[in-house]
Amino acid sequence: MKKIAFLLSVFSILTACKNTEPSTLKEGMWLGKMKLMDHQMMPFNFKISKSASGGYLMESYNADEVLAIDEIAIENDSILIKMPAFEGYISGVFTPEEIVGVFVQESMERSVDFKATYGVERRFEVKTPSTKNIGGIWETEFSPNTDDSYMGKGMFTQTGDRVVGTFRTTTGDYRFLEGVMDGDSLKLSTFDGAHVFMFIAKATDSTLNGTFYSGDHFKEPFVAKRNASYELPDEDSLTYIKEGYDKLSFMFPDTHGNTVSLEDPQFQDKVVIVQIMGTWCPNCLDETKYLVNYLKEQKQNNLQVVALSFEYAKTEEAAFKAINRLKERIGVQYPILLAQYGSSDKELAQEKLPMLNHILSYPTTIVLDKTGKVRKITTGFNGPATGDKYDQFDKDFRALVGSLLNE
Prior knowledge:
Elements: H1 2-16, E1 28-35, E2 41-50, E3 56-62, E4 65-69, E5 71-75, E6 78-82, E7 89-95, E8 98-105, E9 110-118, E10 136-142, E11 150-159, E12 162-169, E13 172-173, E14 177-182, E15 185-191, E16 196-203, E17 207-214, E18 218-226, E19 251-253, E20 259-261, E21 271-277, H2 282-298, E22 303-310, H3 316-330, E23 336-340, H4 346-352, E24 364-368, E25 374-379, H5 388-405
Parallel strand pairs: 21-22, 22-23
Antiparallel strand pairs: 1-2, 1-9, 2-3, 3-4, 5-6, 6-7, 7-8, 8-9, 10-11, 10-18, 11-12, 12-13, 12-14, 14-15, 15-16, 16-17, 17-18, 19-20, 21-24, 24-25
């Protein structure tokens, strides 16, 4: 936190100065890089342009995803770029063709060194033409042969040396990954405004052996083998109501200071979707966007959604600020209640909802029928990066909620 405080103080000093000729950024494609463990650099592509009002706009790219960023403040040679929905921001100094600074997530007390260069469009440098094609399905184990081992499903498409796809796990997906095959080396990355992810691996025709990096604070090995028929455990069977409990119940404050529970009139005789989430969580953001769009389509008086937010923010005020930012930026009309702040620890979260056997993932989504009975609990969320899996979720969700509304 000392490093973050110092950088913010520097930014404040610089922005207090006034220049008659403020610096400008060149419009067009840029390549950003963030420093990870092992001296690795995680690249991502973005484009700088000007708005009609003369301000700067930024589009960050991950495969098919375009992240639109419209909160960019410039004073003299200082720049502050706020991520949409998430609390993270890039702070630094710049010239027309270079930005140097840090990506900061204050609530998590994390910062990652950042540098961007104008005019570089290639995400990863390819030194050797691809010698392997990793397109297909991969049975993947992260942290193999340890107590922390967990399974994933790699899903990739390769065209020439360009690779796109994702890893699914039982708790969600690693969102839109984009990269290359450089000879027999796989390189994939994503920056979604919250997570700084990179996967590197050596490939044979049937195996991958590599390392997953998350920011400059975490890394783990992974191994994978081709398996076109591989599937993960059913995400609808991992979390359930424990014996001795007959219903879900909670009582948490909303952003207006009101205490809300499932016993309140607005939830009575309604189908209710309860979303366990956090404003810091990209998979939760994917699900939130889905639910917002679904509610716009349905406009059902007998359907309610309520979210329970578990926040890293150290104070209640900061947690509600993050919730309000998410609601404003995404257009969330349903209540988001503050269930916990200061930690997103899943064991602590489960203590707040003791009727559940555990909370394995953010998000976890619980569907109640009109009598308040739990009809389905889904662990994690398979977002749009998962392609067919996301489409199947959409189909199944609409069918379930539709049938409950008609009961």
